[in-house]
Structure formats: structure tokens, C-alpha cells
Amino acid sequence: MQIEADTPAGLTTRPLAEQVYVNELTTNQQAWFVVAEAPATSTLKGDLVGFAWLQMFYDEAHVMNIVTRPECQGRGIGWQLIQALLAEARRRQAICLTLEVRASNAPAQALYRKCGLQQVGQRKRYYRDNNEDALIMTLMLGA
Ligand SMILES: CC(C)(COP(=O)(O)OP(=O)(O)OC[C@H]1O[C@@H](n2cnc3c(N)ncnc32)[C@H](O)[C@@H]1OP(=O)(O)O)[C@@H](O)C(=O)NCCC(=O)NCCS
């Protein structure tokens, strides 16, 4: 929640209430989270520097959120988080990894393209805060 709070508004979805995370982490068997920790020897001393959240919808793995702490961006953490989500999606035998991303969020789109996702559609005015369109990006997970 702190990492989300430190992220400039208008990039992800809105910050979520603590109880949402508690429920997702403790009761939702279809949700899976991965966190990135700074090395204990670094100035951040083992702090969380990023996280990603996967939700299975039937046989589709949906990326609900992915965030790297602002001062730690550009060091490969986002790429590693997506690789972890892809491994978990495959472990759960998902047919694809899919997500929505704001049309204006070029860094996130570049990350997803680097990980093999492609734009497969668009949702008009998907984001309620500014009526921004979402791009739907997907990677099919073949056998
Ligand atoms: C999107 C986000 C998670 C990327 O995390 P990151 O740890 O900085 O990503 P990485 O360092 O692993 O970068 C991997 C690739 O993403 C792309 N990328 C990352 N930051 C970028 C930027 N500022 N501009 C352009 N491309 C960028 C590049 O393709 C990069 O590969 P490269 O280093 O070989 O050029 C991060 O910018 C973030 O937390 N943004 C705010 C929250 C957000 O927008 N989440 C996505 C919601 S859909």
C-alpha cells in the first residue's frame, strides 16, 4: 500500500483499502502475489521495492496490478515481477496472461511488450478517474 501511495496518481487503478489486500491475501485462492525485496546489504535493507498481483479468472491469468517503487524503477524489477507472474500462470495452466493498461502509460506498455505481450483490444473510457481508454494486452501461453 505504501508503494502504491508513493506512485504518482493516474498510472495504476486507484489505491485500494487495506481490507481488500487482507481478503485477497488470506481468502482468495485464485489470487497470487509476488514481492521484490531490496538486498539486506543495500540502503533499503530488505524493504519491499515492488509487487505484482495475479488473479485467475477460469483459465485466464489476469494481472491486477504491478508496481515498482519509484526510486527503484528502471533496474529490471518490473521485468522480474512479470516473469514470476508468467511462471505462476503456467503453473496454474492458464491459457494466457492478460491485463489492461492505460493508453498513456508508455513505460508499462514497453515493459509488457518486452515480456512478449501484444495489444489485442481496447476498452473505451475504462478508467473512471479520467475516462481514459485501456489497452488490452495479452500473451498466449502455449503448451
Ligand atoms: C511499469 C513499471 C512497473 C516498470 O517497472 P520497472 O521496475 O521500472 O521496469 P524494468 O526496470 O524491469 O524495465 C523493463 C522494461 O520496461 C520498459 N520501461 C520501464 N520503464 C520505462 C520508461 N520509463 N520508459 C520507457 N520504457 C520503460 C523498458 O522496455 C524496460 O526494458 P529496458 O530496460 O531493456 O529498456 C514501473 O514503471 C511502475 O511501477 N510504474 C508505475 C505503476 C504502473 O504504471 N504500473 C502498471 C499498471 S498497468
Shape summary: globular
Count of spatially separate domains: 1
Bound molecules: coenzyme A
Assign the structural class, choosing from mainly alpha, mainly beta, alpha/beta, alpha+beta, or little secondary structure. Answer: alpha+beta
DSSP helical segment count: 4
Classified by CATH, the class is Alpha Beta
Characteristic terms for this protein:
alpha+beta, Aminopeptidase, 143 residues, single chain, 6 strands, binds coenzyme A, globular, 4 helices, 6-stranded mixed sheet
Describe it.
It is a single chain. This protein has 143 residues and is an alpha+beta fold. It starts with a helix and ends with a strand. It is globular. The chain has a single domain, classed as Gcn5-related N-acetyltransferase (GNAT) (Aminopeptidase), CATH 3.40.630. The mean pLDDT is 94. It has a six-stranded mixed sheet with strand order 1-2-3-4-6-5, with helices on one face. 27% of the residues lie in helices and 36% in strands. Residues 7, 11-12, 66-68, 73-79, 101, 105-108, 110-111, 114 line the site of coenzyme A.
Write the layout of secondary structure elements.
Elements: H1 2-6, H2 18-26, E1 31-37, E2 48-57, E3 60-68, H3 77-91, E4 96-102, H4 106-114, E5 118-127, E6 132-140
Parallel strand pairs: 3-4
Antiparallel strand pairs: 1-2, 2-3, 4-6, 5-6
What is this entry, summarized?
With 143 residues, this protein is an alpha+beta fold. It has 4 helices and 6 strands, in the order ααβββαβαββ.
